[in-house]
Amino acid sequence: MAQLAINGGKPVRTKDFPKWPIITQSDEKNLLAALRGGNWGLRGSMLDKFEKEFAKFTQAKYAITVTNGTAALEVALRGVGVKAGDEVIIPPYTFIATASAVLTVNAVPIFVDIDPQSYLIDPGQIEAAITPRTAAIIPVHIAGLPCDMDKIMRIARKHKLAVIEDACQAHGAEWKGRRVGAIGDAGCFSFQSSKNLTSGEGGACVSDDRKIFERMWSLKNCGRIPKGAFYEHHVLGWNMRMTEFQAAVLLSQMKRLPAQMKRRDENGAYLSQLLGEIEGIEPQKWTKGATRHAYHLYIFRYDKKAFGGVPRERFIRALTAEGIECSAGYVPLYQEPMFVVDPAVHVFAGKVDYTKVKCPVCEHACAEEAVWLYQRLLLGTKRDMEDIARAIRKIQDNVDELRS
Ligand SMILES: Cc1ncc(COP(=O)(O)O)c(C=O)c1O
After folding, report:
1. Nearest ligand 1 atom, CA 169
2. What is the pLDDT of residues 58-115, one digit of tens each?
3. Is any atom of ligand 1 closer than 6 Å to the C-beta of 203?
């Protein structure tokens, strides 16, 4: 008789994990207050308050809200001075926005491979990618795990490059005890639906540099300047402003965030302990200076050799059938059809032939190895974490069922 749920056996779980987003009366109260307040955009007091609270949360001097994380990256890129034709170093293991923001400001993404154990940009390969046209590096704290910011900042200062942290998945993550975001020259966050802090859509840029902050403020405010007139436009900007409704929801959620972060910390550590004991499963390895993972995703590496040669895709289908939602995640960004077929990419990125880019570590991770669990799973109980480990062990113990 079949044991595995994919073959008709009894699944390890039939109960779902905590739902996301979580909605409380405090969200409803804040939203109603925003509605009745009548300042729905531009000068909303909740927007002001949220920007101050978010700066405090990220331990940054300044924060501005924007329409989404992609906009945050565009604003930050121009905010630190990236110009048309400049090259910007990024990892290929990230969401498309990291690359498309670079292209949208007419700059050229240059891909540097990731570390095989952390899946974060490999600082040891950055210098080889620097040319006289390089203007910036975007380390992406993928899954919520901080990149090696010491090494990256050292390289950037040596070559006079700007650093923009893509912290869109890393709310509250810490590098050597400091929150990510303003360790580099600017940092970007997303409040899109899946994120650990969400208003459906939304984003923020943070910085410790007053000049960069003021420039980013102008760029998202139609080129206005902080004390200028309403119809006075100094730079080519966008309207990338968030609404008061989004700030209302975010302010309410900020109150719950510390407790949720603590829960993910505890469950993440416990899950790593459990999964670390299973042959062929390696949790994403922390960079040496990382002191807090935001666990937007929980990524582990799957080695099919310990699972009778069963390909990762089949393992993922089997794990999903056991009641554990999971996925394979990204493809290497430069393999996205956009880089090959969209003429806009060629106009902006000039002579780079993205079909020739090779980042073998990223390609292996994407094709065979990476398995993603989502942050809402880590909001469950210790028992829930044990279920995840139990489901993986069950697949390993009955792997013959997947080979036939
Ligand atoms: C790493 C990364 N960068 C950028 C973004 C873009 O954020 P948004 O979807 O809010 O535009 C996201 C999120 O989707 C992301 O995960």
Report:
1. 16
2. 999 999 999 999 999 999 999 999 999 999 999 999 999 999 999 999 999 999 999 9
3. yes
Q: Whose Cα sits closest to atom 8 in ligand 1?
A: 69
Half-sphere exposure of 361 (CA within 13 A, CB side): 17
Query: At a CB cut-off of 8 Å and minimum separation 6, what does 337 contact?
Result: none
What's the pLDDT band for 1 if we cut at 50, 70, 90? confident
Q: State both tokens at 222.
A: 């139609």
Strand partners, 374: 297
170 lines ligand 1 (CB under 6 A): no
Q: How far is the CA of 362 from the centre of ligand 1 (A)?
A: 19
Angle subtended at Cα 73 by Cα 71 and Cα 78, rounded to the nearest 5 degrees: 100
Mean pLDDT of 161-168: 99
For 180-234, the pLDDT digits (tens) are 999 999 999 999 999 999 999 999 999 999 999 999 999 999 999 989 999 999 9
CA distance linking residue 323 with residue 17, whole number of Å:
9
